[in-house]
Amino acid sequence: MNTTLSTLSSLAIYIALVVVGAIIGSRRQVRSRPLVWLGKLQFVALMILIVTLGVNLGANDEVIASLGQIGLAALVITLFAMAGSLLFLTLLRRFVLRLDHVGLPRGSAQTGQEEKHSAGKADNALTKWIVIAVVLGMLAGRFVLPPAVTVHCGSVITFGLYLLLFLVGMDMGRQGTFLSDVKAAGFQVLLVPVAVGAGSLAFAALAGLLLPLGVKDSMAAAAGLGWYSLAPTLLAPYSLSVSAVSFLSNVMREIFAIVSIPFVAKYVGYVECASLPGAAAMDTVLPVVVGATHERITIYSFTSGVVLSLAVPLLVPAIVALPF
């Protein structure tokens, strides 16, 4: 119950920040100005957030200890789950939602113009900076920064996330297409988290056929869908070893998503970027998704993350209760 209330409270804050940012960004006085500093501030804030996430992980003894003990199983489950969610969402986008590479209805006159406008957003430069930020952060958290500093990572991450969500909202407002984007997405946007969740669990089951862990436990580990602070807690009474695999697998999912999103945006599709982080698509990874794609994809990413976050406390116990 407390977990659900905490999730709902966080969602309310996230939504409020995006909406307030969109309202401010849509004002004529704001839209009429170039605001070159907005993009630069977003990039700086994103790098600070990712470095801090790296520090937080590097300072976490559980993460470091798990790497040697259960790293291979967690890696296989993570790669399979991400591949499954990517495949299922690609099929959904192409054959059900009928959207093109940039997330617009097929044949839209805006597609060519937007691809040209966004060509530089999803290049390798963003990936390079993300990888550098994560690695430096983890090394600093593990070998340089004292516990008196790393203990404040949570507060820095929260503040950085709030700032980025507000700036993403401002960008959406300045585009002037927020309401039309919501209308274009429609209720079909709810199919996105269904595809992500189904793909993750289906391919995690396939991974279980290759691992000593088995199908059920592999699915249980993947059912956290990137929420590494909750899923291991839910799994601990069932199995400490599965809980440890789940923890490391979901940590890996967030890191791998941050690194791979620019490539997926460029070579697969904008909407598919929402599949990679799972539940984290609504918060820490949302700015990376938007930075590599377009403000319009916020609707898909945020909605998917919200639904998946609410589903995790139900999915994990349900899989544990399976009679095999």
UniProtKB/TrEMBL annotation:
Q: Does the keyword Transmembrane helix apply?
A: yes
- Record keywords: Hydrolase included? no
User: Keywords in UniProt for this one?
Assistant: Membrane, Transmembrane, Transmembrane helix
Coiled-coil intervals: none
Report the superkingdom from the record: Bacteria
One short Pfam name that applies is Lys_export
Residue intervals passing through the bilayer: 6-25, 37-58, 70-92, 126-143, 149-168, 189-213, 225-248, 297-322
Q: Mind telling me what this protein is named?
A: Lysine exporter LysO family protein
